[in-house]
Write a structure and sequence with these properties.
353 residues, alpha/beta, three-stranded antiparallel β-sheet, 12 helices
């Protein structure tokens, strides 16, 4: 008798589970995600579309994110504002595009003479960087996720050769981040403009030089059609991180498994994007060289001038912003050891290779 009751109860439970399953499967969360970059832009744009694709696939369609390219829903530099206000649930871009809100955002992207892409992720993951980032962004109702990196960038495309510090005086240059502050100290008129405006501004003469990303993206944006002088590397930007930011109220409304899916998708995108840049930059550089582009290093006095100017910018940032000072303490603690390690292992290997 007890066995028959157990079987009946088990059958009832199975039926109930079967009936309940469709309700779970029908759950569907739809979010809008504006990006600071054109959706089709290699690396930076496809990072957002790939993230959305992974979230939908990993959630079996329970969570769908619609990506809007730069300017389609909000201006490129207003993505974080839109997420903070709750006008959209999620956004995509790079932290230093919102540095006017907090100077600390620069260190979550990349700074002159700073960490490389691999070192940057190591600091975020194990050096306390992510915890500080979470804390600072929580004050603005944001939950940030690292989602990719361009690796070391190009120093910029110049219409005229740079043979000494004197050649920088009065140049109008598109450059982002604290690299712009560094270049201002060397006499450059540093201008931050959305990526979609770079080509036209360089072509029209509104700017004399432009720092964008590197061979893959610079070629895609056609900068080689205006000048064949590209200086490398970007001492101003040895890495540049991408991010996904979520409104904290929207984040709180997600189930634990969907939160895990968002985190996993961002992490997978970070690896894919860094690899994408490393792979496709090789072919793009070769193609550009075949077309007559010269990849040049800055003169020694320019590099020394950049490093000296950067030292001044760091101390100004430290003194002006408690958040920047807090980030710097953690960032510098890791970098001080990372430099020696990288020089002894990676540096020696690359020099011999």
């Amino acid at each position: 008798m007890k066995r028959r009751l157990f079987l009946k109860s088990g059958a009832g439970l199975a039926a109930a589970t079967t009936l309940a399953a469709p309700a779970i499967a029908q759950e569907r969360i739809e979010w809008d995600m504006p990006s600071s970059f054109p959706k089709a832009a290699p690396g930076v744009g496809t990072n957002s579309t790939r993230f959305a694709e992974l979230v939908e696939k990993l959630s079996s369609g329970r969570m769908v994110i619609t990506v809007y390219g730069a300017g389609e829903l909000v201006p490129p530099f207003a993505v974080e504002d839109a997420v903070q206000a709750g006008n959209v649930q999620i956004g995509h871009g790079t932290p230093y595009y919102a540095a006017s809100k907090t100077a600390a955002a620069h260190w979550f992207t990349g700074v002159p003479f700073g960490l490389t892409a691999n070192e940057h992720y190591a600091w975020l993951k194990w050096g306390g960087g992510q915890e500080i980032w979470d804390s600072i962004y929580a004050e603005r109702n944001l939950k940030p996720f690292y989602s990719g990196n361009s690796g070391t960038q190009a120093g910029g495309w110049f219409k005229n050769r740079i043979e000494s510090l004197a050649d920088l005086q009065g140049l109008n240059m598109r450059i982002a981040g604290l690299g712009g502050e560094m270049m201002r100290k060397l006499g450059v008129n540093a201008i931050l403009m959305p990526p979609t405006e770079i080509f036209q501004s360089l072509q029209s003469g509104a700017i004399d030089a432009a720092e964008w990303v590197g061979p893959l993206l610079d070629q895609a944006f056609g900068l080689q059609r205006i000048t064949n002088l590209c200086y490398t590397p970007a001492y101003a930007e040895p890495c540049a991180a991408l991010q996904v930011v979520v409104n904290t109220e929207a984040w709180a409304g997600l189930s634990d498994d969907l939160k895990a899916i968002v985190e996993a998708a961002a992490l997978q995108c970070s690896m894919e994007t860094l690899g994408q840049f490393d792979y496709y930059n090789v072919g793009a550089m070769a193609s550009l060289e075949e077309a007559g582009v010269e990849f040049l290093n800055f003169p020694d006095d320019v590099i020394a001038g950049m490093k000296s100017a950067w030292g001044e910018v760091v101390e100004e940032q430290r003194a002006a912003s408690p958040d920047a000072a807090r980030v710097l303490e953690s960032y510098e603690a890791y970098q001080s050891g990372a430099v020696g390690y990288a020089n002894a292992f990676v540096g020696r290997y690359l020099a011999a290779r």
